[in-house]
Design a protein that fits this description.
Layout (H helix, E strand, L loop, with lengths): L1 H36 L5 H8 L3 H7 L3 H26 L3 H19 L2 H4 L4 H28 L9 H12 L10 H12 L2 H5 L1
Helix pairs in contact: 1-2, 1-4, 4-5, 4-7, 5-7, 5-8, 5-9
């Protein structure tokens, strides 16, 4: 009896783990499609990217707003987790900061479409923005502090200032084909480096 109960419990855990993995695959696919095609991309395009049927997406996320909010949170967590990993894997904290900012820029592309999708739920959008700030500003601060400690940048900017600056540079991206926000962001990050590092 106890063995059967244990087997049932393990089966339930496996199903839950499979469900979580499936949801992560869907969110990763949706994020990629949103970056490429915007948040109004057809659900069938996301389903094709994930290798599932459209019905599977609706079972996990009944509305487009549900899906967009989940992608938003998924990308925030991915950015948050990437910061410490980049610091551990990259010899130069300044380089790690640049790589992390690249991920942040990709996230902002999706984020800019969120306001329109949630225009009737201002409280919900504000709560997500607070979550985004609380989760990501400390990660950016750790990257900046590591670069300062390594002597690679001067302590002349806060994490919040940097993220606001990057956000402002990205705000007009996609509206003007002659405007390259990514290039400007790279110049900004390069400009944070001490002169000796910029020459290297």
């Amino acid at each position: 009896m106890s063995l059967d109960a244990g087997g049932a419990g393990q089966g339930t855990q496996r199903k839950r783990a499979d469900s979580v993995r499936n949801e992560q695959v869907l969110l990763a696919a949706a994020a990629a499609v949103f970056v490429a095609s915007g948040v109004d991309a057809p659900v069938r395009e996301i389903a094709g990217k994930a290798g599932v049927g459209v019905g599977t997406i609706y079972r996990h996320f009944p509305t487009r707003a549900d899906l967009i909010i989940a992608v938003y949170r998924h990308q925030v967590e991915a950015c948050a987790e990437a910061g410490p990993a980049l610091l551990a894997d990259t010899k130069s904290p300044h380089s790690a900061l640049g790589q992390w900012i690249d991920l942040f820029v990709e996230f902002l592309v999706t984020k800019h479409g969120l306001a329109a999708a949630l225009q009737n739920d201002r409280d919900g959008f504000d709560a997500l923005h607070t979550y985004f700030v609380d989760r990501l500003v400390p990660v950016c601060a750790d990257l900046l502090q590591a670069a300062v400690a390594a002597g690679e940048i001067d302590p002349s900017i806060s994490a919040y200032q940097l993220m606001r600056g990057v956000g402002n540079l990205c705000a007009g991206d996609g509206k003007d084909p002659g405007y390259d926000a990514g290039h400007l962001v790279k110049l900004l990050i390069r400009g944070l480096a001490r002169p000796a590092l910029r020459r290297g």
